[in-house]
Design goal:
Layout: H1 3-7, H2 11-22, H3 25-41, H4 52-67, H5 81-92, H6 95-105, H7 110-117, H8 121-136, E1 142-146, H9 150-162, E2 166-171, H10 174-183, E3 188-192, H11 201-211, E4 216-220, E5 236-239, H12 244-259
Parallel strand pairs: 1-2, 1-3, 3-4, 4-5
Length: about 260
Amino acid sequence: MSLGQDLAPHLPFLRRYARALTGSQGHGDAFVRATLEAIVAAPGDFPRDVDPRLGLYRTFHAIWSSANIEEDPGAGSGADPESIAQARLARITPLSRQALLLTAMEGFTPEDAGYLIGAQPDEVERLVAEALAEIERQTRAEVLIIEDEPIIAMDIETIVRDLGHSVTGVAVTRDEAVAQAMARRPGLVLADIQLADDSSGIDAVRDILQEFQVPVIFITAFPERLLTGERPEPTFLITKPFQRSTVKAAIAQALFFDQATIPA
């Protein structure tokens, strides 16, 4: 099997990670493209002594780390604005949150996460604990849940409340979601893709975003359908069935970027 065939099944999930790490589809996909370009340019440098997924994420982190540099004040007009923006984003997402996303969202063990970010397993566990402590100090938000499966909706609501956030409501259709959002504007939306009346959570979110901006996390059993990189897609995505830790990490990261201010 070729290297491309080995890596193809893992690309949607690298896109998910990259978007969660950068806080945007555009920046995340740019880093993924740069990763693939580096692999194509020097396939012999790809780490073959580890699982292909691990090697892919390792190459991504090498690209990510290369952008995590201080902007040169003397760069002047010769600096690439996109490169500067990416470097600023790299500084915004600290190592502790990288460790949390790798373990909670991507399912890597502390050993594997350590390999990816250049840390020992016990250091990864310390970084994750640091990220969780930071989440506890995070500004509280009002959350709208769009989910038509009662048990899943209750589970999500419990997770949201356990994090200290409040729930503005639980909607099961597109129309309900839009009406609830207009009645009480949430600070975060968690949306299933397929809703009770065969309407779409994506359409509900699109309607809401036409009225006001709010961070959104989508929940789906088929993430690869939304992570092609070919059209506007979710920045934050949770895969069903999900772990509670995954939902917590996604909520924290979505609010982190919503509340963060990128230096001018």
